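Appendix B.2, paired examples.
Example (i):
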Amino acid sequence: MDVTIYHNSACGTSRNTLALIRNAGIEPTVIEYLKTPPTRAVLQDLITKAGLTVREAIRQKGTPYAELGLDDPTLSDDDLLDAMLEHPILINRPFVVTPWGVRLSRPSEVVLDIFPLPQKGPFAKEDGEQLIDAKGNRIA
């Protein structure tokens, strides 16, 4: 099973998404994108396949978004991609690539939409929210 997650271990949503993938019995390829940023072509491909605009793929919170003036609506997609490549912390996370599609898994349970394999057991997010019951079924 070829599954890749663009991961930031400091992010709870990213950790929860990785744990959901592993709860299905899959060990994905983990790319710590802050250490190994994607190329421009890969980043553009992730954004496109996830059905997002470049602006929707930018992380604002906890980043230099405002100080770089990225809220300027006249900036082109190329300008925004340049900023994301220069400052990978601007890339929202986690992007997950599976044979069934690509998603920005925010919230973490979005990964289940492109990961139809059964969960192996119960799962709760780090905050205690139960997502998967004891039989491996999605709750809500």
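Example (ii):
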Amino acid sequence: MLISLYSAATGMNAEQSRLDIIANNLSNVNTIGYKTVRAEFQDLLYQSMKEAGSPTAQNSVLPTGLYVGHGTRFSSTNRIFTVGNIEETNHSLDVAIMGDGFFQIQLQDGRIGYTRDGAFKMDATGRIVTSNGLVLVPNIVVPENAMAISISPDGIVSAQLPDDTVENLGNITTVRFINPSGLKSIGSNLFLQSASSGAPIEGIPNQDGFGALQQSSIEKSNVDVVKEMVNMIVAQRSYDINSKTINSADEMLRTVAGLKR
């Protein structure tokens, strides 16, 4: 009887964690470059009352065993790196990656962060930076007298000058990982390399499997609102069912405790 109490309690904890993940996905539905997160679970250890294959008579064995589970646990989160919807803007420094790849960002502590958020800005010195002022890598500086900025699908950045000449400012390179789901999320639309993600593989956009760049566009979140709402309803109902299991087990224990000779 106590097993059902603890199993249902683990189910309630698991659904609470799942709801937390769903709430975070929905809260980031308008976050540029956000990738939806999926909660994953594992069943706990089983109590073996009879092993499958145990002899039942001289010439027969059990075809199936007798096992009782002890509930579930929240095992991991998996970030889904499908490409979100591309939205065109009128800002020349907005860049979307049409496929595989991450932009490289210089963090304050010297480390390199990685992002799908291509809503870039320009600081007072002409450097291309993120919304938080972090510098894009490779560092590209736009001249003060630039009339227009052009970013090609393969990452070539050029500026049109007042004398109608075009100056090449540099090349935006992107990186990819063998296991992007293993990247460490640090907030602000940034990821860090981890032991699970593998080392970054740098390449030229629109070549060798790297996604092409699209100027004056941003990649929206890939959160499917309808799917997340359905998942939220399922999590709520699962939580309710587990709570009813606890109530039922409690009633059965009360009946047993009230037995009299």
